[in-house]
Amino acid sequence: MPVLVMKFGGTSVANLDRIRRAAKRVGVEVAKGYDVIVIVSAMSGKTNELVGWVEETSPLFDAREYDAVVSSGENVTAGLMALTLQEMDVPARSWQGWQVPVKTSSSHSSARIEEIPTDNITAKFGQGMRVAVVAGFQGISPEGRITTLGRGGSDTTAVAFAAAFGAERCDIYTDVDGVYTTDPRITDKARKLDRISFEEMLELASLGAKVLQTRSVELAMRYKVRLRVLSSFEEQSDTAGTLVCDEEDIMESNVVAGVAHSRDEAKMTLLSVADRPGIAATIFSALSDAGVNVDMIVQNISEEGRTDMTFSCPTAQVARAEKALADIKSSGGLNFAELVADKDVAKVSVVGIGMRSHTGVAAKMFKVLSEEGINIKVITTSEIKISVLIDRKYMELAVQALHDAFELDKAA
Amino acid sequence: MPVLVMKFGGTSVANLDRIRRAAKRVGVEVAKGYDVIVIVSAMSGKTNELVGWVEETSPLFDAREYDAVVSSGENVTAGLMALTLQEMDVPARSWQGWQVPVKTSSSHSSARIEEIPTDNITAKFGQGMRVAVVAGFQGISPEGRITTLGRGGSDTTAVAFAAAFGAERCDIYTDVDGVYTTDPRITDKARKLDRISFEEMLELASLGAKVLQTRSVELAMRYKVRLRVLSSFEEQSDTAGTLVCDEEDIMESNVVAGVAHSRDEAKMTLLSVADRPGIAATIFSALSDAGVNVDMIVQNISEEGRTDMTFSCPTAQVARAEKALADIKSSGGLNFAELVADKDVAKVSVVGIGMRSHTGVAAKMFKVLSEEGINIKVITTSEIKISVLIDRKYMELAVQALHDAFELDKAA
């Protein structure tokens, strides 16, 4: 029988009623003849509670223990979902990551999936089981310890299963009914996109659109997984939501597809760093080793052999970045005057494949922000996006102004 | 280095502060030179929350999914305890049941530990690790699925580890400072016992004294594990709490050691059962297969080839018992008129090794209850205990009256 992967996020399984509603939707697909692999997140709020406990216990936590604790939320939902399906007379059982096993790297808290053997679950499908409920977001390292894939990792789990099992489609059920031109909570002019290219979705996801996790879109692009984002709170047709697909499948599009934002950013500046070859490598290797996800990097003009180095990273990783840099300073590996952390910044980006063939997008963006009196702190660009770091208090204003200026409320 | 097992129950790890307090106590033993195996329960309330979700989802749940869900509570505590110890610079890591692996039978929700390989943890001790934190209450079946040992199973986990590692002692930290002659919440005349025999402890635990789980005491008795019950909320000396030990190590004792009670009892009566050989086997095999823990059994005098059969079981298993018996009735395996469940009963027992050599304990017990106007519904006896089922509303009165009559407030 054809296989369908259905993924339910935290708000879609937030309590027993919602789990039942999700299970009914699974039942509909089973009735159509699919063998279904359901990937579940933790009940919403649970992961935050667990992460809070870990961080309060140990600010510079052992990521292996973090993973052991935080992965428990998904296990609970997986068992409850299997029980709910059984109550509906749908043959189902749950799998925890290590039981499949979802084989990952040893990079705890941000592990990569390396292999998903299909024999175990396929055999059960052959014996009459119709739904395999798999705890998302987790796997097992070569050392036999529990790993997690990082926040939002359940999307990645879903796409990886869809690829491994050659699924007909991978439906991501969430609390929004698709991908929007920007966050509808910031402007009611935000418009749902029927289709979006993998490339644009990648930029939107990584920039904080929060609908799909970056790696899940990368994986879907690489393995040509048909990915659909849709709401678990509305009745659905087969064409609901937003289809994330190849660029060629999109007939016509705006120059800019969307405006993304990210509140969870910190701007870190190393003052008066010795400006010599290899210094950037020293800094960013140390940060990488400490598990800090550096995003934007800017190096100021050098004066008298010293320079300022600015980078951004998630707010939650500031303490870790500070420790890593203090450590290499005290061990003599790096010389700098001061490390200044600014946690009150936000990132705003415009994204669109059309930028490749249209010039002037950057100029227009800077002009719009300037007219609103918003100071730009850091700029980075790629082929299909332009991002700026600004004071967090201006974030909503910036998004609204850019959405208006690029006329994203109107379809192409 | 000598190994010590320390087990912390749910109230001893109820929040991060209490986990820190427990970790400090572990640190004291590490400083004395012990390699410590810490067994943890779920934070108090967590297991009940999980069980509640399972039962609401599926009243006649698949025990394999129940185990997958309910075991997650201990995993959280194990990781948090390991992190807390690391923060105190004590080298520690957590193990979930399947990682050790704690090999159990396939009897989900009430599995028995069959083997605990020691090589994995012993190797880590050899590499400098000082504390292995193990999630209690859980293991893995031969089929590779998660099992749980039943409520209170963390005590059993602790004793099994103490036996497997040849630990010098197994300290059970709980919310009481030892074993009492009866529940101090029922009478303030309850007195802490310095020592109690394994046999007496077995009867007290299985009868609801709630200090130690029955199987843990059985295991301790079989493997001669020195078992100490003590409070995690008071400063402790090496002789605090109650030592559970061999009968020979107790110099002098009262005829009756304690009065136990159990509120969580239901009295089930099968009316008008065909009285023929094999009928009891049919009934109790069916209940056993359904996972119902039958305690007391009474068969009334037979009239005209039919009899009434009464048994008691935990209140939570009434629905399961009813279904099992209805099933064999409808399949023609058993003929009876009606099944009557009385959930408003309680069990009260007097326990003491001294009963073996002293007569008249039963007569005295029945006289005391009669004087208080308490009707006895069912009686069972063993070599060292007498139990009665009474209306639940008289439970406290019965315990107080018996404690007074046997002068348990006075040491021997």
TrEMBL record, chains A, B:
Alphabetical UniProt keywords: Amino-acid biosynthesis, ATP-binding, Kinase, Lysine biosynthesis, Nucleotide-binding, Transferase
Residues bound to ATP: K7, F8, G9, G10, T174, D175, Y180, R185, K210, V211
Similarity field: Belongs to the aspartokinase family.
UniProt pathway annotation: Amino-acid biosynthesis; L-threonine biosynthesis; L-threonine from L-aspartate: step 1/5; Amino-acid biosynthesis; L-methionine biosynthesis via de novo pathway; L-homoserine from L-aspartate: step 1/3; Amino-acid biosynthesis; L-lysine biosynthesis via DAP pathway; (S)-tetrahydrodipicolinate from L-aspartate: step 1/4
Organism: Sedimentitalea arenosa
Stated name of the protein: Aspartokinase
GO CC annotations, alphabetized: cytosol
CDD domains: AAK_AKii-LysC-BS, ACT_AK-LysC-DapG-like_2, ACT_AKii-LysC-BS-like_1
Binding positions (substrate): T47, E74
Pfam families per record: AA_kinase, ACT, ACT_9
GO-annotated biological processes: homoserine biosynthetic process; lysine biosynthetic process via diaminopimelate; threonine biosynthetic process
GO molecular function: aspartate kinase activity; ATP binding
Superkingdom, natural source: Bacteria
Catalytic reaction(s) noted: L-aspartate + ATP = 4-phospho-L-aspartate + ADP
UniProt EC number: 2.7.2.4
Domain ACT, first and last residues per copy: 268-350
